[in-house]
Structure formats: C-alpha cells, structure tokens
Amino acid sequence: MGEPDHGATPELGGALLAPAQARSGAAASIGLIAVALATTMIWLAAPDQPQLIVANLIPRTADDLGTNMVMIVDPSNRAAVAAAAATLRLPEPQRQQIEQSVLQRERRLGWIVLTDSMDPDGDTVTVEASGIVQHVVLTKAWVPVAVPLEGTGPIVITGVRDGGGGGITVALGTRGGSVALRIMLPGERVEVMP
Question: Is residue 94 included in any domain, yes or no?
Fold first, then answer.
C-alpha cells in the first residue's frame, strides 16, 4: 500500500455512491401510497375551523347557559341557529325546515341540557317539544338537546328505559349547576316550561 495522495481529486467509490435507478412496479406504488397516506393524515389532523365554531355555539358548561332551564337560541345569529338545528335528532329535511322557520321567526329553538343524576347506567328518555320527539341516552357528561318551540307549550321529558334498576335518574343543567328531577319509571313524564 502506498501513501495517500493528499492533492488528488476524490473519485466516486463505484456503484455504491452512484445515483440509484428509479424503481418501477410495486415499489413505486408503495411509495405513492405512503405519500398519499401521510398527506391524508396531516389533512385530517389539521383543525377544522367550521367545526370549532359550531362547537363553541353548543352549550358545554354552566357558563354557556342562560338563567332558565331552557336557553333560547338568538334567531338573528345564523350560526347559532344552524349549530342547534344540526344537532336535532331528526331527518335532514326536517332539520332544514326547522332552521328556516327559526330564521324567519316563525318558531323558536332552545337548548335543554340533560345528564344522569346518579350512575350512568344507560337510562333513556325522550324530549318532546312542539310535537317533535328525540331519544336521549343519559350519561354523566352534559347532553345538550336542541328543542324546537312553538307558542308557550312545555318541553316534556318522558322516561323510556331504566338502564340498571333503581329508576330513571335525570338532571337538567343550569348556570347554577345540575338540578335533579324526581326519579322516574318508564312512561312517567315531567314537564319543563321554556
């Protein structure tokens, strides 16, 4: 072995340092799929502003509620009306009809917040207002329910299913905290005035 020539120009070390040939077939397809998957994951992870705005219009805490058991949605706030109408447990055409009638001030839309006042064991109730019935499974978390209102009629909460025995335990969320209703049996009703 000779002494290294420090003044020599470096040379590529053969095939190891040469540019790789573009692969075709399965390897290229896998690469494209990986890039597409990574792009999709980044897109899905990005915050979606319209959903964040809608979430801010739905009552989540006591501070979001008014002073009554039912918080009326401001009909001049199109976004608030749209957010409430979107949560109605109804077919889309019926939701759209209700949204339009609220915007035209032909009816009102309000929020009532329900929770299980004891153990979240699958108790189920219906919430009925203006002839529209929505089924709600109670949990320990607040469950905001949008209710369409016409005139001065009550909102009727009816016990449907006792999840674990001991009765259907429901509470209404208010700015001052939860207010427990009497323990109900399936078929029993409680009226709440808006």
Answer: yes
